[in-house]
Amino acid sequence: MIVDDIMTRDVVTVGLDDSVKWVRAIFDERRFHHLIVTEGGKVVGVLSDRDLLKHISPFIGKMGERPQDIISLEKRVHQVMSRALISAKPGTDVCDAAVLFVENRVGCLPIIDDAGRCVGIVSLRDLMRALAGIAGCNIPPRELDEDAKPKAA
């Protein structure tokens, strides 16, 4: 099995100068944990929901919210993203991808072609689902994932 078999092909990307406020809305709406950062169509980094939480005020939307808290949403992606990119190429064996996850302690692997474009993304959850399937575990289909369900209003 290769990463092409388990990757998500509909990758959401953001630019270096996109606002943290806009990225936060994407995370809230789409309910996933990683965005690929591109410049000129080429991958330059990854932004995780954890990166975002580290850089915005915990008081946003709370009664104690202050003007300086709102300013934290004006930061730009390039100020909060991870630039140390751990990625894989199309055709990478799933076992090799698992090694990359473990050795580098990452939550996703962008799948990047020879031109530097992101053609997919494999999350730790995707990898676990694939390996559990190989092991014969009864894993619910991806569309029944809790994260795939629409958020309650």
Structure description:
With 153 residues, the protein is α+β, with helices and mostly antiparallel strands. It has a single domain, classed as CBS-domain (Roll), CATH 3.10.580. It is 35% helix and 18% strand. The protein has helices at residues 3-6, 20-30, 49-55, 67-71, 77-80, 94-104, 124-134; strands spanning 13-15, 34-39, 42-48, 108-112, 118-123. A three-stranded mixed sheet has the order 1-2-3. The protein has a two-stranded antiparallel sheet with strand order 4-5. Strand 4 (108-112) and strand 5 form a beta hairpin. It is globular, with a radius of gyration of 17 Å.
Describe the protein's topology.
Elements: H1 3-6, E1 13-15, H2 20-30, E2 34-39, E3 42-48, H3 49-55, H4 67-71, H5 77-80, H6 94-104, E4 108-112, E5 118-123, H7 124-134
Parallel strand pairs: 1-2
Antiparallel strand pairs: 2-3, 4-5
Helix pairs in contact: 6-7
